[in-house]
Amino acid sequence: MLYLLRMLVLGLHFLLVGAVGLLIGLCRPFNPDNSRLFARLYSVPAAWFMRLQVKAEVGPLWDQPPGCVIVANHQSNYDLFILGQVVPRRTVAIGKKTLGWIPLFGQLFWLGGNVLVDRKNAYQARKALQTTTRILRDGTSIWIFPEGTRNPSEQLLAFKKGAFHMALEAGVPIVPVCVSRYTQRLNLNSWRRRTVIVRSLPPIATRGLSQQDLPALMEQCRTQMQQCIDHMEQELPTR
């Protein structure tokens, strides 16, 4: 019963934020701070409905000036309600082109200045890389999930190259953001509060690196994030 009530409230909340956000987006389209505002509107009330306490330890992320590549692990569709609380200023995201067709949310994603990519079209993918390089050099950060898909398991999937190509091309730092494994503890049919830790790691510099350094850069980032997630798991109760 509680689960169904939560789904109803979250659905109504999703529609309400979409309508309000659409008005904001039309008043200031493609503003690089739109995504941060929309993320807050979605996440803060939704996390309360879901009884999720987000413990944000993201000093390195918020201290980093805009114009970096932010990489985070991706567990479920509920990530928006958790990571939305820590999005820094002047940050946009990269998403699949199909996101643009989701009613209200897709329009907000577009008006937020986010980048929609058709992964099946090689020409469009190259064009998107040029766009992201310009965005980064203009002092706007880009948020991306390097695993490329949702992954609730204990081990991170192999990272895809896109985020790291962007960082190397623009010569900007990479800031890893790690989220504790909340999907294993989430119970939407319970009123018990659950804690989720979001922790950012120190920026990884890319200036002076070349494409030959790409594999080592990817492995360094993935290893650091895996160690951080494992450590956070030890800090939280098992159930």
From TrEMBL:
Enzyme Commission identifier(s): 2.3.1.51
A cellular-component GO term for this protein: plasma membrane
Keyword Transferase: yes
Keywords recorded for this protein, A-Z: Acyltransferase, Lipid biosynthesis, Lipid metabolism, Phospholipid biosynthesis, Phospholipid metabolism, Transferase
All copies of domain Phospholipid/glycerol acyltransferase, residue ranges: 68-182
The organism's place on the tree of life at top rank: Bacteria
UniProt GO MF annotations: 1-acylglycerol-3-phosphate O-acyltransferase activity
Reaction(s) this enzyme catalyzes, per UniProt: a 1-acyl-sn-glycero-3-phosphate + an acyl-CoA = a 1,2-diacyl-sn-glycero-3-phosphate + CoA
GO BP annotations listed: phosphatidic acid biosynthetic process
Annotated Pfam families: Acyltransferase
Biological or metabolic pathway of the protein: Phospholipid metabolism; CDP-diacylglycerol biosynthesis; CDP-diacylglycerol from sn-glycerol 3-phosphate: step 2/3; Lipid metabolism
Family stated for the protein in its record: Belongs to the 1-acyl-sn-glycerol-3-phosphate acyltransferase family.
Recorded domain comment: The HXXXXD motif is essential for acyltransferase activity and may constitute the binding site for the phosphate moiety of the glycerol-3-phosphate.
Protein name, entry field: 1-acyl-sn-glycerol-3-phosphate acyltransferase
